[in-house]
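anyone else get weird line breaks when pasting these?? whatever heres mine. first is seq + C-alpha cells for prot A
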Amino acid sequence: MGTGIAGLVATSGQILNIHDAYKDERFNRGVDQVTGYVTKSILCMPVFIRSTIIGVVQMVNKRRGLFTKDDEDAFEMFAVYCGLALHHAKLYDKIRRSEQKYRVALDVLSYHNSCSEDEFETARAMGVPKSIPGLDE
C-alpha cells in the first residue's frame, strides 16, 4: 500500500493515467528491474465494494498511442464489474459458510437426539417414572 502507482491508487482512490512511467517519480521501477519488462504507459484505477477500495486494476503499455479518456471510461466499467464479481463471490462464500455451520449444528443435534437399540430397550424396560425429582429446576 502506498508504493508505486497501484499503491497510490489503492490509498487515494483516484484514477491515474500515466503517459510515461519512467518520468513519473511515483512509479516503482523495482518490478521492471526484476522482470526485465519495460513499462511505458499505465492506466490504473481502484476497485470498490460499497465505497470501500478492495483492490486495484491496471493496464500497461497500450499498443498504439496513449491511454485516452475513452479507455478510462471502458476500464472503469471493467473495474465496476470486478467489484460486483468480488462482492458476489464474498456473499456466496458467506452463505456457503452459514450453510456449513447449519449442517454441523443439525448433525450435533441429531446425534444427541438419537439412541441405540440397546439404550431404547433399557429405557423401555425401566418404564416411565411417575415423577422425576428436581425436573423443574
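and prot B, same format (seq, then C-alpha cells)
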Amino acid sequence: MTPALVFKEGPLSGRRIEVDAELVLGREDAGLTIEDEELSRRHAVVRPGDGGIEIEDLGSTNGTYVNGSRIEGPTRLAGGDSVKLGRSLIEVESARAAATVAAAVPSAPAPAPPAPAAAAAGARSAPAAAFGAYAVPVVKRRRGIASRQLGPQLLSFAIVAATAVALVLYFADH
C-alpha cells in the first residue's frame, strides 16, 4: 500500500489521496487543486520515498505546518502526523498502517462508479484524484483576467455600441 493524505478539515474534508508520485498542492496549476484563498498557487509538494512521504513548502506566503511547527525545508512525515495548509488539516496515513488495516478487514471489490455528469456533458476536467476505490474527477476552473472571459467582453462591446448609436443620433439632430 502507498502512503496517503486524509483531509480532516477544509475544502476537501473527508477525502483520502494516495501519494504514489510527486504531488503539488495549491490553489491553481497544481496536481491537487484546493479551493482555498489562504493557499499559494503552488503551495507545497509531497513526495513518496522509502516507504513514507516527505513534504516541502514551495515558498508560500502563509507557510506549511507539520504537527504545529512551520517547516523551512523538506520534512519527513510519519503516520499520524498532521499537516496544516491554509484552512486544510491533513493527517498522514502511513503505508504500513494501511497495509495492517487492509489485512485485518477484508473488503469486497467496489463496483465501478457511474460516469460523472460533468464528464458526460463534455466538461473539461483534470486527471482524477484517487478517493478510495473510486476516482473523483478534479474539475479545473478556467481563471484569468476579465478580458479573456466572454461575459464581460460582450457587456463592454454592448456599452460601446450603444454609446456610438446615441452619439450618431444626437449629432444627426443638431
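btw re prot B: The first strand starts at residue 4 and ends at 9. DSSP finds three helices and 13 strands in the chain.
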